[in-house]
Amino acid sequence: MIRNAGAGSGDARPADLPSHVLAAHRKLLRRRAVAVLTTQIAILLVFLAVWEVAGRRQWIDVLLFSYPSKIARLLAGKLADGSLMPHVWTTVLETGAGFLLGTLLGTALATLIWWSPFLSRVLDPYLVVANSMPKVALGPLFIVGLGPNMGAIIATTLAVTVIITTLVVYASFKEVDDNYVKVVRMFGGTKSQSFRKAILPASIPAIVSTLKVNVGLAWVGVIVGEFLVSKQGLGYLIIYGFQVFNFTLVLGSLVIIAIVATVMYRVVASIEARLNRKP
């Protein structure tokens, strides 16, 4: 209800439009969505076709760049012998844990800072400095402190995701219209109720948008962590491929990362679309 406080401004809302206008608008949106998806698929297919031809005709160095059918054969062989999926599931588990924990901890820290203006002023320079640091460089410290295990990899991921989540979510809290809070206070609401009824609901779109950013950041943290310490995972396969000059394996691992990251991104985008959909 808080987010609809300005609905009486006289502007026509979608529900006020004639049904045939709404139907035409939805049809136009569907056509645009289909056109965008078709173009995206066409670009991908053209890229793969050019890459395949260039590899087969030796226009590129196949040792370094391989080509799609060769990558597909390698991945199919590893799927068939059961050696690929343990690496995939390990990385997906680490990425999912880092992604969720980073979002939750970052949002909790942003809430704490919003709750205490004094703490906000104290922590502001530290957050700015922490955000400017190359967080992945902390990986060796986590490995020494936590041991060469999954905990160190997840900690590296959290170092990448927590600070940016905190800054973005806290900024969204500050940008919420003060009138929303005043409405809650007028009815005797406490600060906690103001947060739950006004600040948090109005900031949900920003939090979900942060999830989309964290998808990429979580993958960066996990892969860097696996570069440093892991004996299993897609990051390990990439390092192993470099060591034995099997760049087809390197590119195949990158393809899997791209596919899984795309699925995660689409899930978050779907959640965002549902939240932003007007009743």
TrEMBL record:
Q: Residue ranges of the ABC transmembrane type-1 domain? A: 88-268
For this protein, the parts annotated as crossing the membrane are 33-54, 95-115, 127-146, 152-173, 199-224, 244-268
Asked if the record carries the keyword Transmembrane helix, the reply is yes
Q: Which Gene3D superfamilies match?
A: MetI-like
Biological processes, Gene Ontology terms: transmembrane transport
Keywords, A to Z, come to: Cell membrane, Membrane, Transmembrane, Transmembrane helix, Transport
Q: Which CDD domains match?
A: TM_PBP2
Annotated protein name in UniProt: ABC transporter permease
Q: What organism does the record attribute this protein to?
A: Paenibacillus ginsengarvi
Source lineage: Bacteria, Bacillati, Bacillota, Bacilli, Bacillales
